[in-house]
Amino acid sequence: MAERRFSHAIAEGDGISVIAAVEDADAARAAESQRAEALVVRGEPNIVRAATSLPILWRTDRGFDENSGADAIALAFDEDDDEFDDRLRRALALGLDCAIEVRDEEAVELVLERVDPEIFLLVPEESNDGDSPLDTVLDLLANVPAGKLAIADLPVATRGEVQELERAGCDAVIVLTRDLEPLVGESPPEV
């Protein structure tokens, strides 16, 4: 059962939270020292669990269990996936926060009707109309109701893009570990 609440880590505090994408214990330690507020892992969360106290969001296509070391799981929403509801119920029963991955406005509407999640993971699809991934995420964000948490998963290049997401009401952004330091702003003053 998760003791660290992923949702609390990205909801509390001022401004947008930075979630560092990591693959190993060294990257997890580096992200924590650079003031990430959570981690996202595609491999086995237990690999980084011992190296950090930060909450871990696990992105996996495989099954999951209570011994994974994860605090939250990303579940891709597909309206034709008959097992989605079962995976969601199982994750919630294990005490995991669930970030529901959506890629278009229709998916946001459908997932709200079907499961009304607390956390949305906004992942832009390839755009045929010339919109940038940032524009696409901002459009998706406009469809997420107030009171829900929204995480942007897109290649963020500048502090200005992070600030634009923050102004639009995004709660968190996933960034690569090597990009972390310039995006989190200045260090808090020492007291």
Walk me through the structure:
This protein is of the alpha/beta class and 191 residues long. The protein has one domain: Aldolase class I (TIM Barrel, Alpha-Beta Barrel), CATH 3.20.20. It is 32% helix and 20% strand. It has eight helices and eight strands. It has helices spanning 6-11, 25-33, 46-49, 84-93, 105-114, 133-141, 159-168, 180-183; strands spanning 17-22, 38-41, 56-59, 72-76, 97-102, 119-122, 149-153, 172-176. An eight-stranded parallel beta barrel has the order 1-2-3-4-5-6-7-8, surrounded by five helices. The termini are far apart. The model has no long low-confidence stretch (mean pLDDT 87).
Q: Tell me, what is the CATH class?
A: Alpha Beta
Strand arrangement within the widest β-sheet reads: 1-2-3-4-5-6-7-8
The helix content is 25-40%
The name of the CATH superfamily reads: Aldolase class I
Q: Strand-and-helix sequence, N→C?
A: HEHEHEEHEHEHEHEH
Note the gap between the termini: 35 Å
Query: What coarse outline follows from CA principal-axis ratios?
Result: globular
State the major sheet: 8 strands, parallel, barrel
Q: Which stretches of 5+ consecutive residues score pLDDT under 50?
A: none
CATH architecture: Alpha-Beta Barrel
